[in-house]
Amino acid sequence: MRRILILSLVFLSLHALSAVAQKIDPEQYIYPLVGVDGSCTANFGEMRPGHFHAGVDIRTEGVEGKKLVAVADGYISRVYLAAGGYGRAIYITHNNGTMSVYGHLQRFRNDIEKHVIAERYARKSNYLDLYFTPDRWPVKQGDFIGYSGNSGGSMGPHLHFEIRNASTQQLYNPVKTGIITPADTLAPRILKLHYMEVDSVESAGVCMQSPMRSYSAVRERGGKYRLTRETPIEVGRKGYFVCEVTDRRNGTHNRFGVWRVTAYIDGKAYFEYQMNGFTFNHSRYCDAVSYYPLQLKVRTEAIRLARLNNTPNYFYPTLIERGLVRTAPGEKRHIRIEAEDDSGNISELEFDIVGSEESFKAEVDPGARLLYAYNNNNLGIGTAAHAMIPSGALHENIYTRVSQRPYSDPKSKLTILSDLYRILPPYTPLKHPMTVAIKADIPESLRQHAVMAIKTPRGLSYAGGKYYKGEVIVKSSSWGEYIVVADTEAPTVKANFKPGENLRNRSSVTFHIRDNFSGSSNYQVSVDGQWVPADRFPMKGTVVYKFDKPADRRTHTITVKVTDGAGNTRTFSSKYVR
To answer: For the whole model, what pTM was predicted?
Structure first.
């Protein structure tokens, strides 16, 4: 069975590699926006906690309403509408076998917008995911399709733009393929270098590492960097480096991810990472490509110059012994690291290393539990909690020491209903969610409001979950200590108009939604008792209702009902004239 699994993983990696290798002709595409300067605020493949960035974010000069056009012939195959994620999005399937995706739109072009409004009314749903056949919305290159905006999980007005393989959904790098060509003559910045020695617990298949040692880098001239120390770095018999690097572009202060990092030892390349593309099921491997504990803390990319066992090969076109550097005691070697952005600008760092007389030896905590990456791992924590970490959730085999401790917070408005339970070591990323269940003696009045929270260095954060037969159960990909709490405070709703105000000259009304902990999970707006479509903007904390019927100079009642993640509901009503 294990052999079948390994062969399947190899096949999937080869399939993904084949998709990445497909050629894109940039001459077949035009720019997706009209009336902008062409600068970007984020690039393809940037490492973010939990995912690679799937496209490029194109600046719209701080405003909404820039015209969007089809980059090539094809048809609108999908229209998506949600409060989070891409918000309003259009998917165009092109005749050349690719697909373009436009995210965070303000609105669709008029005929599509009318269809979307009709569907929302028919389904009484603020969420839509509509698919279309080629004959419904055909487009020619340059056809107008909608307006740029700030919907969904957007921090400011921009267009999120992607190019995919239409059949496999393989994502392509729009800049490296030449479809998007931002002004960029600036080479990446190499900021820090980190080194860790490793030692394996062979019987368990666990690779353990020494504490990280860090070294600052400074630029000498052009793209040449050096370490601030003058003497060689002392290294162990076996270890690897982490390179902290970032990129920049002309005319913007934004930080970008790099396209390639290559490491050479004594003039020979032994490691290379490239970001040419990926499939969505591999997006969470960013937590293995990066050094996750450091990546969470820095504003740069902390790229691990070594490959974890289960990470897809296609990220690493050059790889010798998984990127591990072996050095004998007293042996001197020369390291060169190149960082290249997707516009072809290159920086390099050179330094010497020398082998240490002593080596790091792995020591296993006798109270630790061994978790296998490709086994289902069931963990009991005391008598009241258990967790199941499914096969494939971990990036590598690890040891963990589960623990239980009491917790209190006099300043919190939450009701604490259990101890804190630690399941995984701090900063352990998961590719798939684990199931956590904690038994708690919860009064019946609080059961509908009982949820799971996670204790992190910043305090308690909402994790989700529900009460069921004496325990609260959640599926979560987050690390930290888990605890059951009750959130009994309902969201607040505040309108941007006064009761009875004449709104005849307004095109919309806005409601500001606030919640103390679990966030607003569901909302509904009605006018005179009839459901109406409304858009939620989670980053702004607002719900917006756009008037879609003519003014009649009558008094109307608008009602907003908001429910948070812990089942608390707030209903707000007010009258207006229009």
So the answer is: 0.92
